[in-house]
Amino acid sequence: MNWFKVMTLTAALAANTAFAEVAVIVHPSNAATLDQAEITRLFTGRGATFNNGNKATPLNLSESAAARADFDSKVLGKSSSQMKAYWSKLVFTGKGTPPKELNSDADMKAAVAADANAIGYIDAAAVDATVKVVAKF
Amino acid sequence: MKKTWVAACVAMACCATTATAEVNINGFASIKAGKASSGDTLYGYTDEIDFKNESLFALQVQSDLGEKLSVTAQIMARGRNDFDAEFEWAFLTYQLTDEWRLNAGRLRTPFYKYSDFRDVGYAYDWLRTPQSVYDLGFNTIEGVSLYHSSNFRNMQSNLQLVFGAYDGEVAVVGTESPAQINNIVGATWELSQDWLSMRLAYLVGDVSIEASSLNPLLQALSNLGLGSVAQSIDFNEDDGSFFGVGLNYDRNDWLMVAEYTHVKVEDSFYANQDSYYLSLGRRFGAFTPYVSYEKDEDDAKPEIYAALPANFPLRPTIATIVNSQWFDNSTWNLGLRYDFHPAAAFKVQFSSAKDKFTNSKDSLMALGVDLVF
Question: Nearest residue of A to residue B125 by CA position?
Protein backbone atom coordinates (compact mmCIF):
# COMPACT_ATOMS: atom_id res chain seq x y z
CA MET A 1 0.00 0.00 0.00
CA ASN A 2 2.85 2.39 0.85
CA TRP A 3 4.21 1.75 -2.56
CA PHE A 4 0.95 2.97 -4.13
CA LYS A 5 0.98 6.08 -1.93
CA VAL A 6 4.43 6.90 -3.23
CA MET A 7 3.20 6.44 -6.79
CA THR A 8 0.17 8.70 -6.34
CA LEU A 9 2.25 11.31 -4.53
CA THR A 10 4.76 11.34 -7.38
CA ALA A 11 1.91 11.73 -9.85
CA ALA A 12 0.44 14.60 -7.81
CA LEU A 13 3.77 16.42 -7.65
CA ALA A 14 4.25 15.99 -11.38
CA ALA A 15 0.79 17.48 -11.99
CA ASN A 16 1.53 20.49 -9.75
CA THR A 17 4.56 21.52 -11.75
CA ALA A 18 2.38 21.91 -14.86
CA PHE A 19 0.54 25.08 -13.81
CA ALA A 20 0.15 26.64 -17.25
CA GLU A 21 -3.37 27.46 -18.43
CA VAL A 22 -4.82 25.90 -21.56
CA ALA A 23 -6.76 28.19 -23.91
CA VAL A 24 -9.40 26.66 -26.20
CA ILE A 25 -9.33 28.59 -29.46
CA VAL A 26 -11.46 29.04 -32.58
CA HIS A 27 -11.33 31.15 -35.74
CA PRO A 28 -11.93 34.89 -34.98
CA SER A 29 -15.13 34.82 -37.09
CA ASN A 30 -16.64 31.98 -35.03
CA ALA A 31 -19.44 33.35 -32.83
CA ALA A 32 -20.30 30.05 -31.09
CA THR A 33 -20.22 29.86 -27.31
CA LEU A 34 -18.74 26.76 -25.72
CA ASP A 35 -18.72 25.29 -22.25
CA GLN A 36 -16.65 22.37 -20.99
CA ALA A 37 -19.36 19.80 -21.78
CA GLU A 38 -19.61 20.98 -25.39
CA ILE A 39 -15.84 21.03 -25.85
CA THR A 40 -15.70 17.49 -24.45
CA ARG A 41 -18.42 16.40 -26.87
CA LEU A 42 -16.49 17.72 -29.86
CA PHE A 43 -13.13 16.25 -28.76
CA THR A 44 -14.61 12.80 -28.04
CA GLY A 45 -16.39 12.55 -31.40
CA ARG A 46 -19.87 12.64 -29.83
CA GLY A 47 -20.79 15.84 -31.59
CA ALA A 48 -19.79 17.37 -34.91
CA THR A 49 -21.36 20.82 -34.82
CA PHE A 50 -21.07 24.05 -32.79
CA ASN A 51 -24.17 25.18 -30.89
CA ASN A 52 -24.98 27.59 -33.75
CA GLY A 53 -25.26 24.61 -36.12
CA ASN A 54 -21.97 25.14 -37.98
CA LYS A 55 -19.71 22.17 -38.63
CA ALA A 56 -16.89 21.77 -36.10
CA THR A 57 -13.44 20.35 -36.89
CA PRO A 58 -11.58 19.57 -33.65
CA LEU A 59 -7.77 19.63 -33.79
CA ASN A 60 -5.57 17.94 -31.21
CA LEU A 61 -1.99 18.60 -30.16
CA SER A 62 0.34 15.61 -30.40
CA GLU A 63 1.45 13.92 -27.20
CA SER A 64 4.84 15.62 -27.38
CA ALA A 65 3.22 19.05 -26.91
CA ALA A 66 3.02 20.27 -23.31
CA ALA A 67 -0.59 21.49 -23.46
CA ARG A 68 -1.90 18.06 -24.61
CA ALA A 69 -1.74 16.32 -21.22
CA ASP A 70 -3.18 19.44 -19.52
CA PHE A 71 -6.08 19.54 -21.97
CA ASP A 72 -6.81 15.82 -21.59
CA SER A 73 -6.80 15.99 -17.79
CA LYS A 74 -8.34 19.45 -17.13
CA VAL A 75 -10.95 19.57 -19.89
CA LEU A 76 -11.71 15.94 -20.77
CA GLY A 77 -11.00 14.63 -17.26
CA LYS A 78 -8.91 11.70 -18.55
CA SER A 79 -5.26 10.83 -18.83
CA SER A 80 -3.71 10.74 -22.30
CA SER A 81 -3.56 6.90 -22.00
CA GLN A 82 -7.26 6.76 -21.21
CA MET A 83 -8.02 8.94 -24.23
CA LYS A 84 -5.90 6.67 -26.42
CA ALA A 85 -7.80 3.62 -25.11
CA TYR A 86 -11.09 5.47 -25.75
CA TRP A 87 -10.15 6.25 -29.36
CA SER A 88 -8.80 2.77 -30.04
CA LYS A 89 -12.28 1.40 -29.20
CA LEU A 90 -13.79 3.62 -31.91
CA VAL A 91 -11.01 3.40 -34.49
CA PHE A 92 -10.79 -0.41 -34.54
CA THR A 93 -14.54 -0.83 -34.78
CA GLY A 94 -15.03 1.68 -37.58
CA LYS A 95 -17.04 3.98 -35.32
CA GLY A 96 -14.88 7.06 -35.44
CA THR A 97 -11.56 8.70 -36.17
CA PRO A 98 -9.68 10.83 -33.64
CA PRO A 99 -9.05 14.53 -34.31
CA LYS A 100 -6.09 15.34 -36.52
CA GLU A 101 -2.94 16.03 -34.50
CA LEU A 102 -0.61 19.01 -34.79
CA ASN A 103 2.89 19.20 -33.35
CA SER A 104 3.11 22.61 -31.69
CA ASP A 105 1.18 25.64 -30.40
CA ALA A 106 2.40 27.55 -33.47
CA ASP A 107 1.08 24.91 -35.90
CA MET A 108 -2.21 24.84 -33.99
CA LYS A 109 -2.60 28.63 -34.13
CA ALA A 110 -1.91 28.67 -37.85
CA ALA A 111 -4.40 25.85 -38.51
CA VAL A 112 -7.18 27.45 -36.44
CA ALA A 113 -6.55 30.92 -37.94
CA ALA A 114 -6.94 29.40 -41.41
CA ASP A 115 -10.16 27.39 -40.88
CA ALA A 116 -13.50 28.91 -39.84
CA ASN A 117 -14.72 25.50 -38.61
CA ALA A 118 -11.66 24.61 -36.53
CA ILE A 119 -11.45 24.33 -32.77
CA GLY A 120 -8.18 23.66 -30.98
CA TYR A 121 -6.23 24.56 -27.88
CA ILE A 122 -2.81 25.96 -26.96
CA ASP A 123 -0.86 27.14 -23.94
CA ALA A 124 -2.66 30.35 -22.89
CA ALA A 125 0.65 32.25 -23.00
CA ALA A 126 0.89 31.61 -26.76
CA VAL A 127 -2.46 33.26 -27.63
CA ASP A 128 -2.44 36.21 -30.06
CA ALA A 129 -4.96 38.12 -32.19
CA THR A 130 -5.03 35.53 -35.03
CA VAL A 131 -7.33 33.31 -32.96
CA LYS A 132 -10.24 33.75 -30.56
CA VAL A 133 -10.24 32.27 -27.05
CA VAL A 134 -13.57 30.66 -26.10
CA ALA A 135 -12.55 29.13 -22.77
CA LYS A 136 -9.58 28.79 -20.41
CA PHE A 137 -8.86 25.91 -18.06
CA MET B 1 -20.44 -15.25 -49.64
CA LYS B 2 -17.75 -14.36 -47.12
CA LYS B 3 -15.03 -14.32 -49.72
CA THR B 4 -17.08 -12.19 -52.06
CA TRP B 5 -17.55 -9.56 -49.40
CA VAL B 6 -13.90 -9.54 -48.50
CA ALA B 7 -12.89 -9.35 -52.14
CA ALA B 8 -15.33 -6.51 -52.76
CA CYS B 9 -14.09 -4.55 -49.77
CA VAL B 10 -10.45 -5.05 -50.66
CA ALA B 11 -11.13 -4.08 -54.25
CA MET B 12 -12.85 -0.92 -53.09
CA ALA B 13 -10.06 -0.11 -50.65
CA CYS B 14 -7.51 -0.49 -53.43
CA CYS B 15 -9.48 1.66 -55.87
CA ALA B 16 -9.85 4.29 -53.22
CA THR B 17 -6.13 4.74 -52.77
CA THR B 18 -5.68 5.43 -56.45
CA ALA B 19 -8.73 7.66 -56.78
CA THR B 20 -9.25 10.37 -54.20
CA ALA B 21 -9.33 9.31 -50.77
CA GLU B 22 -7.81 9.77 -47.43
CA VAL B 23 -6.46 6.43 -46.17
CA ASN B 24 -5.89 5.78 -42.49
CA ILE B 25 -3.69 2.89 -41.49
CA ASN B 26 -3.79 1.85 -37.85
CA GLY B 27 -2.77 -1.25 -36.04
CA PHE B 28 -2.65 -3.01 -32.73
CA ALA B 29 -0.67 -5.85 -31.29
CA SER B 30 -0.42 -8.01 -28.21
CA ILE B 31 2.63 -9.95 -27.18
CA LYS B 32 1.77 -12.24 -24.31
CA ALA B 33 3.32 -15.14 -22.49
CA GLY B 34 1.73 -17.50 -20.03
CA LYS B 35 2.30 -20.63 -18.02
CA ALA B 36 -0.19 -22.76 -16.14
CA SER B 37 0.70 -24.38 -12.83
CA SER B 38 2.22 -27.85 -12.97
CA GLY B 39 -0.17 -30.28 -14.67
CA ASP B 40 -2.81 -27.58 -15.30
CA THR B 41 -4.28 -26.29 -18.56
CA LEU B 42 -6.20 -23.06 -18.95
CA TYR B 43 -7.22 -20.81 -21.87
CA GLY B 44 -4.97 -22.75 -24.26
CA TYR B 45 -1.91 -22.69 -22.00
CA THR B 46 -0.18 -25.70 -20.49
CA ASP B 47 2.52 -25.82 -17.83
CA GLU B 48 5.12 -24.99 -20.50
CA ILE B 49 5.78 -21.28 -21.09
CA ASP B 50 3.97 -20.24 -24.27
CA PHE B 51 4.53 -16.96 -26.13
CA LYS B 52 2.19 -17.70 -29.00
CA ASN B 53 -1.25 -18.59 -27.64
CA GLU B 54 -2.57 -15.05 -26.98
CA SER B 55 -0.19 -12.98 -29.11
CA LEU B 56 -1.59 -11.23 -32.15
CA PHE B 57 -0.91 -8.52 -34.72
CA ALA B 58 -3.51 -6.57 -36.65
CA LEU B 59 -3.53 -3.91 -39.32
CA GLN B 60 -6.53 -1.83 -40.25
CA VAL B 61 -6.98 0.15 -43.42
CA GLN B 62 -9.79 2.65 -43.48
CA SER B 63 -10.50 4.73 -46.52
CA ASP B 64 -12.90 7.61 -46.74
CA LEU B 65 -14.42 7.58 -50.22
CA GLY B 66 -16.21 10.87 -49.67
CA GLU B 67 -19.95 11.40 -50.03
CA LYS B 68 -20.42 9.77 -46.58
CA LEU B 69 -19.07 6.41 -47.72
CA SER B 70 -16.05 4.67 -46.23
CA VAL B 71 -14.55 1.22 -46.26
CA THR B 72 -12.68 -0.55 -43.47
CA ALA B 73 -10.73 -3.79 -43.51
CA GLN B 74 -8.90 -5.34 -40.58
CA ILE B 75 -6.42 -8.15 -41.05
CA MET B 76 -5.33 -10.07 -38.00
CA ALA B 77 -2.66 -12.70 -37.43
CA ARG B 78 -3.11 -14.76 -34.27
CA GLY B 79 -0.32 -16.76 -32.72
CA ARG B 80 -2.88 -19.44 -31.95
CA ASN B 81 -3.35 -19.91 -35.75
CA ASP B 82 0.40 -19.82 -36.48
CA PHE B 83 0.05 -16.11 -37.32
CA ASP B 84 -1.92 -16.89 -40.47
CA ALA B 85 -3.48 -13.56 -41.43
CA GLU B 86 -7.26 -13.44 -41.70
CA PHE B 87 -9.86 -10.78 -42.33
CA GLU B 88 -11.63 -10.13 -39.04
CA TRP B 89 -13.59 -7.18 -40.30
CA ALA B 90 -14.27 -5.94 -43.80
CA PHE B 91 -17.16 -3.59 -44.26
CA LEU B 92 -18.58 -0.51 -45.90
CA THR B 93 -19.91 2.32 -43.80
CA TYR B 94 -22.54 4.68 -45.08
CA GLN B 95 -23.37 7.65 -42.89
CA LEU B 96 -27.08 8.08 -43.66
CA THR B 97 -27.54 11.12 -41.43
CA ASP B 98 -25.69 12.55 -38.43
CA GLU B 99 -27.50 10.01 -36.25
CA TRP B 100 -27.93 6.95 -38.49
CA ARG B 101 -25.10 4.85 -39.88
CA LEU B 102 -25.14 1.63 -41.88
CA ASN B 103 -22.34 -0.98 -41.90
CA ALA B 104 -22.40 -3.87 -44.35
CA GLY B 105 -19.97 -6.74 -44.78
CA ARG B 106 -18.12 -8.91 -42.32
CA LEU B 107 -18.93 -7.63 -38.83
CA ARG B 108 -18.28 -8.57 -35.24
CA THR B 109 -21.31 -10.28 -33.64
CA PRO B 110 -22.43 -7.76 -31.00
CA PHE B 111 -22.96 -10.23 -28.15
CA TYR B 112 -20.90 -8.56 -25.45
CA LYS B 113 -19.94 -5.15 -24.23
CA TYR B 114 -16.37 -5.72 -25.43
CA SER B 115 -17.21 -7.83 -28.51
CA ASP B 116 -16.27 -5.15 -30.98
CA PHE B 117 -12.77 -4.61 -29.61
CA ARG B 118 -12.02 -7.72 -27.59
CA ASP B 119 -8.77 -8.23 -29.52
CA VAL B 120 -7.65 -4.65 -28.90
CA GLY B 121 -6.19 -5.32 -25.46
CA TYR B 122 -5.03 -1.71 -25.13
CA ALA B 123 -8.70 -0.63 -24.98
CA TYR B 124 -9.37 -2.36 -21.63
CA ASP B 125 -7.52 -3.04 -18.39
CA TRP B 126 -7.66 -6.85 -18.21
CA LEU B 127 -5.06 -9.08 -19.79
CA ARG B 128 -7.98 -10.89 -21.49
CA THR B 129 -11.76 -10.51 -21.52
CA PRO B 130 -13.45 -12.73 -18.89
CA GLN B 131 -13.56 -16.13 -20.58
CA SER B 132 -16.53 -17.50 -18.61
CA VAL B 133 -18.67 -15.00 -20.50
CA TYR B 134 -16.66 -14.38 -23.68
CA ASP B 135 -16.57 -18.02 -24.79
CA LEU B 136 -19.51 -18.52 -27.12
CA GLY B 137 -17.69 -18.44 -30.46
CA PHE B 138 -19.64 -17.21 -33.54
CA ASN B 139 -17.54 -14.04 -33.25
CA THR B 140 -18.08 -12.66 -36.73
CA ILE B 141 -21.12 -12.58 -38.96
CA GLU B 142 -21.77 -11.48 -42.51
CA GLY B 143 -24.57 -9.01 -42.75
CA VAL B 144 -25.69 -5.46 -42.15
CA SER B 145 -25.80 -3.36 -39.05
CA LEU B 146 -27.70 -0.15 -38.51
CA TYR B 147 -26.49 2.24 -35.80
CA HIS B 148 -28.34 5.11 -34.25
CA SER B 149 -26.59 7.43 -31.85
CA SER B 150 -28.12 10.39 -30.11
CA ASN B 151 -27.54 12.69 -27.17
CA PHE B 152 -30.12 13.87 -24.74
CA ARG B 153 -29.19 16.03 -21.78
CA ASN B 154 -25.87 14.57 -20.66
CA MET B 155 -26.73 11.02 -21.76
CA GLN B 156 -25.67 9.28 -24.91
CA SER B 157 -27.73 6.53 -26.49
CA ASN B 158 -26.34 4.00 -28.98
CA LEU B 159 -28.71 1.60 -30.65
CA GLN B 160 -27.49 -1.14 -32.99
CA LEU B 161 -29.73 -3.33 -35.11
CA VAL B 162 -28.07 -6.27 -36.80
CA PHE B 163 -29.17 -8.74 -39.45
CA GLY B 164 -27.02 -11.47 -40.93
CA ALA B 165 -25.74 -15.02 -40.87
CA TYR B 166 -22.85 -17.02 -39.46
CA ASP B 167 -21.08 -19.69 -41.44
CA GLY B 168 -18.12 -21.40 -39.82
CA GLU B 169 -17.12 -24.16 -37.47
CA VAL B 170 -17.74 -24.90 -33.81
CA ALA B 171 -16.60 -27.71 -31.54
CA VAL B 172 -19.38 -30.23 -30.76
CA VAL B 173 -18.58 -33.16 -28.48
CA GLY B 174 -14.91 -32.48 -29.09
CA THR B 175 -14.94 -32.33 -32.91
CA GLU B 176 -14.94 -29.23 -35.08
CA SER B 177 -18.19 -29.27 -37.01
CA PRO B 178 -19.63 -27.07 -39.76
CA ALA B 179 -22.11 -24.64 -38.22
CA GLN B 180 -24.55 -22.12 -39.57
CA ILE B 181 -26.75 -19.58 -37.89
CA ASN B 182 -29.26 -18.18 -40.33
CA ASN B 183 -31.62 -15.25 -39.98
CA ILE B 184 -29.70 -13.65 -37.16
CA VAL B 185 -31.69 -10.67 -35.94
CA GLY B 186 -30.56 -8.67 -32.98
CA ALA B 187 -30.56 -5.38 -31.17
CA THR B 188 -28.20 -3.84 -28.67
CA TRP B 189 -28.71 -0.64 -26.79
CA GLU B 190 -26.17 1.22 -24.72
CA LEU B 191 -27.04 4.20 -22.59
CA SER B 192 -24.16 6.09 -21.08
CA GLN B 193 -23.20 9.26 -19.34
CA ASP B 194 -19.89 10.49 -18.04
CA TRP B 195 -19.19 7.73 -15.50
CA LEU B 196 -21.97 5.17 -15.86
CA SER B 197 -23.11 3.06 -18.77
CA MET B 198 -25.63 0.28 -19.20
CA ARG B 199 -25.99 -2.11 -22.13
CA LEU B 200 -28.62 -4.59 -23.25
CA ALA B 201 -28.30 -7.13 -26.07
CA TYR B 202 -30.76 -9.60 -27.52
CA LEU B 203 -30.11 -11.75 -30.58
CA VAL B 204 -31.94 -14.68 -32.12
CA GLY B 205 -31.08 -17.01 -35.01
CA ASP B 206 -31.71 -20.44 -36.55
CA VAL B 207 -28.90 -22.75 -35.48
CA SER B 208 -27.78 -25.71 -37.63
CA ILE B 209 -24.72 -27.76 -36.81
CA GLU B 210 -23.61 -30.79 -38.81
CA ALA B 211 -22.12 -32.74 -35.90
CA SER B 212 -20.78 -35.87 -37.59
CA SER B 213 -19.95 -37.50 -34.25
CA LEU B 214 -23.67 -37.48 -33.43
CA ASN B 215 -24.84 -38.89 -36.75
CA PRO B 216 -24.75 -42.64 -35.92
CA LEU B 217 -26.91 -42.05 -32.84
CA LEU B 218 -29.36 -39.76 -34.65
CA GLN B 219 -29.63 -42.25 -37.54
CA ALA B 220 -30.27 -45.15 -35.14
CA LEU B 221 -33.01 -43.18 -33.35
CA SER B 222 -34.72 -42.34 -36.64
CA ASN B 223 -34.57 -45.98 -37.74
CA LEU B 224 -36.32 -46.95 -34.50
CA GLY B 225 -39.11 -44.47 -35.18
CA LEU B 226 -37.80 -42.11 -32.51
CA GLY B 227 -37.30 -39.16 -34.85
CA SER B 228 -38.70 -36.78 -32.27
CA VAL B 229 -35.96 -37.74 -29.79
CA ALA B 230 -33.34 -37.28 -32.53
CA GLN B 231 -34.79 -33.82 -33.19
CA SER B 232 -34.58 -32.86 -29.54
CA ILE B 233 -30.83 -33.64 -29.67
CA ASP B 234 -29.64 -32.34 -33.04
CA PHE B 235 -29.18 -28.76 -34.29
CA ASN B 236 -31.44 -28.43 -37.28
CA GLU B 237 -32.70 -24.87 -37.78
CA ASP B 238 -33.28 -24.71 -34.03
CA ASP B 239 -34.19 -21.44 -32.31
CA GLY B 240 -31.16 -20.00 -30.59
CA SER B 241 -31.27 -16.92 -28.41
CA PHE B 242 -28.76 -14.72 -26.63
CA PHE B 243 -29.51 -12.21 -23.91
CA GLY B 244 -26.88 -9.99 -22.34
CA VAL B 245 -26.82 -7.12 -19.87
CA GLY B 246 -23.78 -5.07 -18.91
CA LEU B 247 -22.95 -2.32 -16.46
CA ASN B 248 -19.93 -0.07 -16.33
CA TYR B 249 -18.91 2.39 -13.61
CA ASP B 250 -15.84 4.64 -13.85
CA ARG B 251 -15.64 7.47 -11.35
CA ASN B 252 -12.95 9.03 -9.17
CA ASP B 253 -10.54 6.39 -10.44
CA TRP B 254 -12.71 3.51 -9.24
CA LEU B 255 -13.74 1.08 -11.98
CA MET B 256 -16.45 -1.53 -11.99
CA VAL B 257 -17.60 -3.70 -14.89
CA ALA B 258 -20.20 -6.47 -14.77
CA GLU B 259 -21.93 -8.53 -17.44
CA TYR B 260 -24.49 -11.30 -17.36
CA THR B 261 -25.43 -13.46 -20.36
CA HIS B 262 -27.96 -16.20 -20.99
CA VAL B 263 -27.71 -18.48 -24.04
CA LYS B 264 -29.99 -21.28 -25.18
CA VAL B 265 -30.79 -23.35 -28.26
CA GLU B 266 -34.26 -24.93 -28.21
CA ASP B 267 -34.73 -28.55 -29.38
CA SER B 268 -31.06 -29.40 -29.03
CA PHE B 269 -28.92 -31.06 -26.37
CA TYR B 270 -27.07 -27.76 -25.93
CA ALA B 271 -27.26 -26.69 -22.28
CA ASN B 272 -28.90 -23.48 -21.13
CA GLN B 273 -25.94 -21.30 -20.22
CA ASP B 274 -25.81 -18.59 -17.57
CA SER B 275 -22.59 -16.66 -17.15
CA TYR B 276 -21.52 -13.51 -15.44
CA TYR B 277 -18.51 -11.65 -14.15
CA LEU B 278 -17.82 -8.75 -11.82
CA SER B 279 -14.60 -6.79 -12.00
CA LEU B 280 -13.34 -4.06 -9.66
CA GLY B 281 -10.30 -1.89 -10.25
CA ARG B 282 -8.64 1.29 -9.03
CA ARG B 283 -6.47 3.68 -11.02
CA PHE B 284 -3.31 4.95 -9.29
CA GLY B 285 -1.79 7.19 -11.96
CA ALA B 286 -0.33 4.84 -14.55
CA PHE B 287 -1.11 1.72 -12.47
CA THR B 288 -4.48 -0.03 -12.49
CA PRO B 289 -4.74 -3.11 -10.27
CA TYR B 290 -7.96 -5.11 -10.55
CA VAL B 291 -9.69 -8.17 -9.23
CA SER B 292 -12.53 -10.06 -10.92
CA TYR B 293 -14.79 -13.01 -10.31
CA GLU B 294 -16.39 -15.06 -13.10
CA LYS B 295 -19.02 -17.76 -13.07
CA ASP B 296 -20.27 -20.04 -15.85
CA GLU B 297 -23.16 -22.33 -15.05
CA ASP B 298 -24.65 -24.61 -17.72
CA ASP B 299 -27.80 -26.64 -17.12
CA ALA B 300 -28.03 -29.83 -19.18
CA LYS B 301 -31.41 -31.15 -20.38
CA PRO B 302 -32.01 -34.62 -18.85
CA GLU B 303 -35.68 -34.27 -19.92
CA ILE B 304 -34.49 -35.31 -23.41
CA TYR B 305 -34.08 -38.95 -22.27
CA ALA B 306 -36.22 -38.95 -19.09
CA ALA B 307 -39.28 -40.38 -20.89
CA LEU B 308 -37.35 -43.25 -22.52
CA PRO B 309 -37.72 -46.70 -20.91
CA ALA B 310 -34.90 -47.51 -18.48
CA ASN B 311 -33.90 -50.58 -20.48
CA PHE B 312 -33.82 -48.78 -23.85
CA PRO B 313 -30.35 -49.68 -25.22
CA LEU B 314 -29.49 -46.18 -26.55
CA ARG B 315 -30.53 -44.48 -23.31
CA PRO B 316 -27.03 -44.53 -21.71
CA THR B 317 -25.47 -43.08 -24.88
CA ILE B 318 -28.00 -40.25 -24.98
CA ALA B 319 -27.59 -39.66 -21.25
CA THR B 320 -23.80 -39.42 -21.64
CA ILE B 321 -24.08 -36.84 -24.43
CA VAL B 322 -26.75 -34.80 -22.65
CA ASN B 323 -25.03 -34.91 -19.27
CA SER B 324 -21.68 -33.91 -20.76
CA GLN B 325 -23.26 -30.47 -20.94
CA TRP B 326 -23.40 -29.95 -17.17
CA PHE B 327 -20.86 -27.30 -16.28
CA ASP B 328 -20.22 -25.21 -13.19
CA ASN B 329 -17.07 -23.19 -13.23
CA SER B 330 -15.89 -20.23 -11.18
CA THR B 331 -12.76 -18.19 -11.72
CA TRP B 332 -10.85 -15.56 -9.74
CA ASN B 333 -8.50 -13.15 -11.49
CA LEU B 334 -6.01 -10.74 -10.00
CA GLY B 335 -4.15 -8.41 -12.33
CA LEU B 336 -2.42 -5.14 -13.04
CA ARG B 337 -2.22 -2.77 -15.98
CA TYR B 338 0.73 -0.40 -16.17
CA ASP B 339 0.73 2.37 -18.81
CA PHE B 340 4.49 2.56 -19.20
CA HIS B 341 4.39 4.25 -22.61
CA PRO B 342 1.92 6.56 -24.41
CA ALA B 343 0.97 3.76 -26.84
CA ALA B 344 1.63 0.61 -24.85
CA ALA B 345 0.42 -1.02 -21.66
CA PHE B 346 2.11 -3.78 -19.69
CA LYS B 347 -0.26 -6.30 -18.10
CA VAL B 348 0.06 -9.19 -15.73
CA GLN B 349 -2.80 -11.41 -14.59
CA PHE B 350 -3.15 -14.45 -12.37
CA SER B 351 -6.25 -16.62 -12.93
CA SER B 352 -7.52 -19.55 -10.96
CA ALA B 353 -10.47 -21.55 -12.33
CA LYS B 354 -12.39 -24.15 -10.39
CA ASP B 355 -14.58 -26.78 -12.03
CA LYS B 356 -17.22 -27.93 -9.56
CA PHE B 357 -18.15 -31.13 -11.43
CA THR B 358 -14.67 -32.53 -11.84
CA ASN B 359 -13.57 -30.81 -8.63
CA SER B 360 -10.39 -29.68 -10.36
CA LYS B 361 -8.57 -26.39 -10.18
CA ASP B 362 -6.40 -24.82 -12.87
CA SER B 363 -4.30 -21.71 -12.41
CA LEU B 364 -2.43 -19.57 -14.86
CA MET B 365 0.06 -16.70 -14.77
CA ALA B 366 0.24 -14.54 -17.88
CA LEU B 367 1.91 -11.26 -18.75
CA GLY B 368 2.51 -9.17 -21.81
CA VAL B 369 2.21 -5.90 -23.65
CA ASP B 370 -0.75 -4.46 -25.57
CA LEU B 371 -0.03 -1.69 -28.02
CA VAL B 372 -1.75 0.47 -30.62
CA PHE B 373 -0.14 2.28 -33.53
Answer: A85
